[in-house]
Amino acid sequence: MIRVSLCVMGLIIGILFFLPGFAAENKTIDSLDALLDKVRKESQITSAIDEKREAHFLAAKKEQKRLLKTANQELSAEEKRSEALNNDFDNNEKKIAELEQRLDLKTSSFGELFGVVRQVSDDMTGILEHSLTSAQLTHRDVLTADLAQRKALPTIHELDQLWLTLLEEMTESGKVVQFSAPVISAEGIEQQREVTRVGVFNAFSEGKYLRYLPETERLVELARQPAPHYQEMAYSFEQRHGSGYDVIGLDPSRGAILSVLVQTPDFMERIQQGGIIAYVIIGVGLLGVLLLIERFIFLTLTGRSVNKQLKSDEPNNTNPLGRILQYFRENPQQETETLQLKLEEAVLKELPKIERGLSSIGVLAAIAPLLGLLGTVTGMIATFQSITLFGTSDPRYMSSGISQALVTTELGLIVAVPLVLLLSFLTGKGNRLVQILDEQSAGVVARLVEQRNNANTGNNNPPI
Description:
With 464 residues, this protein is of the alpha+beta class. Among the domains are: 1-30; 177-264, no CATH class; 267-457. Helix content is 73%, strand content 7%. The termini are far apart.
């Protein structure tokens, strides 16, 4: 019974495991015997597959042992090879250290030389880039720039070339040379011209001073040339032929002063920096000059007429002294006191003509420095506004206000000082004329009194 039960249970279990496969192949099974037969066949097939797989695994295990043995042999060989390489590496390290030590000992002086060459090349590159001689001898800074940046020792040929470049620059700095080169005019037109170079200090063409632009390797006319007599000297120097000595203006700063000259404002630019107050001061000065010229001409002509009248006995109505004497000739019988008063009145009538305009000149002389002070205050206000907006990091923001303050102050003083001096001169001329009129009128009265006193005492002196 127990066996039957076990067989039934096995059959049921087989049905449960193999029933899906059977159902896939045969949808219906006729009897339990057929099912049992089917299970046995499948069991035999499965056992064969398992035996085949087991045989394959056993063969692979042997192969793995063989491969492991081969790998261990290779690992041992590589370890030995690595040890040999490490020994070679250590030996090479020692040899390299010894060779480097020997190299340092042998190249210590060359290293010093290399440092000097790099420093000299760097300095020489900057000199050649901005030298006037580079306008004639181009591309000389290529070698020096390469040596200044190089990390390897220079060759003997390169050292020779560097020495020749230094010697050439020293030699050319002491020569006066004429050569043909492209020159950019002030209008921006490039022309081929004859250029005269005086060492490394100046270069000029057709009387115009030139400066060298390293960026374009061209000579350029200065936008603002030096004084005309310096240009005439340069033109005369260009036309000179043969040996000898001549006079020429030099820039000892090698072009720095001439470059700054371009940025120096001229007279009109200075006036524009002063603003509207500067133009007002100039207007005041011109008006004062016109009044001074008119007064000078009038007082000079009047003084000549008076001096001419002093030498003549006949009164002339074209001058103040003649009009005073004419009044005396027309009224010789008046009382002395009345005549004296009339002559004083005649002198007072002439004073406005003599002193006319002098007070206006004095007012203009006083106004000019006050306007300059006004411009100073205005310029300082503008300067402090710039400081408030932009700070003091860039002085250019404050330059306009400072320029206005200084220019207006300068113009005010320039106008006021000559006006004051010339006013004093003209006032002195007028005072001398008034003094002559006073002296002559007093002399007429004194002579008249003396004549009348002589008549009363019986003296017969000739009339005046």
